[in-house]
Amino acid sequence: MNSLEEIYERLELAIERVSDIREEMNSLDDEVIPTAVRDYFVCLSDFIGSCYDVLAVEDNSVYERLELSELQNINHRLYQDILPENYDESFANPDYAVKALGKEYGKLFSFLYAEVRTLIAYAYEKRTLEFTATVELFLEIYSMFTGSEGELPQAKYIKEAICYHMFDYADVLVADRVRETLDPSYTFATDIVMKSDLSDVRYLYKYGEYIGDNEPKTAEFLNKLPEEDIKAMAKTYVDGFVKGFETMRIDLKPKKSVNIRYSIGQERMVREAIKLFEEQGLKPIIFRYAVSRCNRKLTVRTGYMGTPANKQYEYDHRMDEALFYNKAYVERKLAVIEDTYEKYKDMAAVYAGPAVIETFGELPFKPEIKENVIKLSKKQQEMSVSYAGRNAAITNKYIPRDKYSFTIIAYPIPEIGEDFEEIFAEIVKVNTLDNELYKNIQQSIIDELDKAEYVQVLGKGDNKTDIKVMLHKLGNPDKETNFENCLADVNIPVGEVFTSPVLTGTNGVLNVSQVYLNELKYVNLNIEFKDGKIADYTCDNFDSEEENKKFIKENLMFNHDTLPIGEFAIGTNTTAYVMAKKRDIVYKLPILIVEKMGPHFAVGDTCYSYSEEAVLYNPDGKEIIAKENECSLLRKSQDEKEQEKAYYNCHTDITIPYEEIGAIYSVHPDGARVAIIKDGRFVLEGTEELNRAFEE
Question: Residue 494, SS3?
Answer without folding.
Answer: coil
